[in-house]
Design goal:
ABC transporter transmembrane region fold; 16 helices; 2 domains; 522 residues; alpha/beta; Rossmann fold; six-stranded mixed beta sheet; four-stranded antiparallel beta sheet
């Protein structure tokens, strides 16, 4: 950057010498000056190449690091925190906000070279040329800075608002296509198009406001440039007439001013880009600065390694967002028990599963595993001991074997097949085009609801953890298949704790039935 700035000053000085050599002293040493100028241009070009490569590399490294940091932060974030953000808003932060911020940083680094050019050229004007002419230049520079600062503040405000609008649009888009069956079933395509059009128009209006303000910068700078050049020619010309400066010095000053003004305008125009990046950074750090509530108290804690397992809920209550969900829950579970949690929707069954997984901590009371408080057990070790299968099946756009082995990546194909047989999935898998190597599409779109649930249960059985929770994980299955799967679980997991959250308790003989009503055990 400094090399480029020095080269710019040398080019102007050499231009001044050429003019004076031709029109004033009329000496014949112009060839040497021209050769020197060519050398300076070569050096400047090489410096600019290295500078451009370096700044782009830095920008890409920043982009990479922020993507990794954001992903790590969100993947370990609390469930309560993640549920406040739609997947669309998270995608918007990854795609739009990070990209906008990193582009702004790259532009700042890239344009920073102009700072040295402005400093060196302004210093050259003051030291080697006329001080009064230099004051004219500096005054124009200060006015330009003031104008862009005021416009930049407006850009910052509008950009932050625009990013919020864009984030809401992405959320709506995600929501619409996740529920596309509902949209089509209710012939709501035209309604969704209308809603999308309104949001797109809102984004367009917001972008137009930013564009109008940004567009003011260029004509304002051109007007100032014209006024400054006019003043310099008028005053400098009068000095030349009186013989106080040479033609080369006047040309040199005008060249120096123009050479300094162009990078200054680039620096000031960068303010608009910087304000956009600042708005994006605010949204990003709003996420990154949120600390998880569910944390390990002590990673060095010694975990009770009993061969048998026991779960105790002792006077457990839970409130979320000022809403009471569970009240004074007490029960114990032992190895070898298959237990049913039953109750109407909203009675608190899933909340008990969430507490056992430590997605939340109880508001009062305690939950113990082998007489050890759950929040004293490192989260990773706790979740190795407990497996949860929910009603909302989550499958990946990968093969069946990869989906089942997600819970145990070093499992053999024989172990995967064994888990599939236990969940009654093996037969339909073998009827698929490529068997276990069949790719099942995004979120398992190639499978029926019942097939998805059997794959999810197979994944849980492969993990073979001491505690298994099925949270209405068989709702898409017929009664006979559901009963067969539960019997299989009782048979192959007879020495472990199995918790079945269901509303069809007649399908299996349970060791215990815990009934919930309005957040309490009845």
């Amino acid at each position: 950057m400094i090399t480029t700035a020095i080269a710019s000053v040398l080019i102007i000085k050499l231009s001044q010498l050429i003019v004076d050599e031709i029109f004033v002293t009329k000496r014949n040493s112009i060839l040497i000056i021209v050769l020197l100028m060519i050398v300076v241009f070569v050096i400047k070009g090489l410096a600019q190449y290295y500078q451009s490569y370096l700044t782009k590399s830095i920008g890409q490294n920043i982009l990479r690091d922020f993507h990794i940091q954001m992903y790590k932060h969100l993947i370990f974030a609390d469930l309560e925190f993640l549920q406040k953000f739609s997947s669309g808003k998270i995608v918007s932060s990854f795609t739009n906000d990070i990209m906008l911020m990193c582009n702004s940083i790259s532009s700042c680094i890239s344009t920073a070279r102009y700072f040295f050019s402005v400093v060196f050229l302004t210093g050259y004007m003051f030291i080697f040329l006329d001080p009064f002419l230099s004051l004219i230049a500096v005054t124009v520079f200060l006015i330009a800075i003031y104008i862009t600062q005021k416009l930049g503040y407006l850009i910052h405000e509008y950009t932050y608002s625009n990013q919020e609008i864009f984030s809401n649009y992405i959320s709506k888009l995600d929501e619409t296509f996740r529920g596309i069956k509902v949209v089509k079933s209710y012939l709501a395509e035209d309604y969704e198009i209308l809603m999308a059009k309104e949001k797109i128009q809102e984004i367009s209006k917001s972008f137009s406001k930013i564009a109008k303000i940004s567009a003011l910068i260029s004509p304002a700078m051109e007007l100032l440039n014209g006024i400054a050049i006019g003043c310099i020619i008028w005053y400098g010309g009068s000095l030349g007439i009186r013989g106080q400066i040479t033609p080369g010095e006047l040309i040199g000053f005008i060249s120096a001013f123009a050479a300094a003004y162009r990078p200054l305008v680039s620096l000031l125009s960068l303010n608009a880009n910087f304000q956009e990046g600042l708005s994006a950074a605010k949204r990003i750090f709003k996420i990154l600065d949120t600390k998880p509530k569910i944390i390990n108290k002590n990673d060095d804690v010694v975990v009770n390694s009993k061969t048998s397992n026991k779960i105790d809920f002792v006077n457990v209550s839970l409130s979320l967002n000022d809403r009471s969900i569970l009240h004074n829950i007490n029960f114990s579970l032992l190895d070898g028990e298959t237990v049913a949690l039953v109750g109407k929707s909203g009675s608190g069954k899933t909340s008990i599963a969430n507490l056992m997984m430590r997605f939340y901590d109880p508001s009062t009371g305690s939950i113990k595993l082998n007489n050890q408080e759950l929040n004293d057990i490192p989260i990773q070790l706790l979740r190795e001991k407990i497996t949860l299968v929910t009603q909302e099946t989550m499958l990946f756009n990968a093969s069946i074997v990869e989906n089942i082995a997600y819970s145990c990546t070093n499992a053999t194909i024989e172990q995967v097949i064994d888990a599939a047989k236990k969940s009654l999935a093996h037969e339909f898998i073998m009827n698929m085009p490529h068997g276990y190597n069949t790719t099942i599409g995004p979120q398992g779109s190639e499978l029926s609801g019942g097939q998805k649930q059997r794959i999810s249960i197979a994944r849980a059985l492969l993990k073979n953890s001491p505690i298994l929770i099925l949270d209405e994980a068989t709702t898409a299955l017929d009664q006979n298949t559901e009963s067969a799967i539960y019997e299989s679980i009782k048979k192959y997991r007879k020495d472990k704790i199995n918790i079945i959250i269901t509303y069809r308790i007649h399908t299996i003989n349970f060791d215990k039935i815990i009934t919930l009503k309005n957040g309490s055990i009845v």
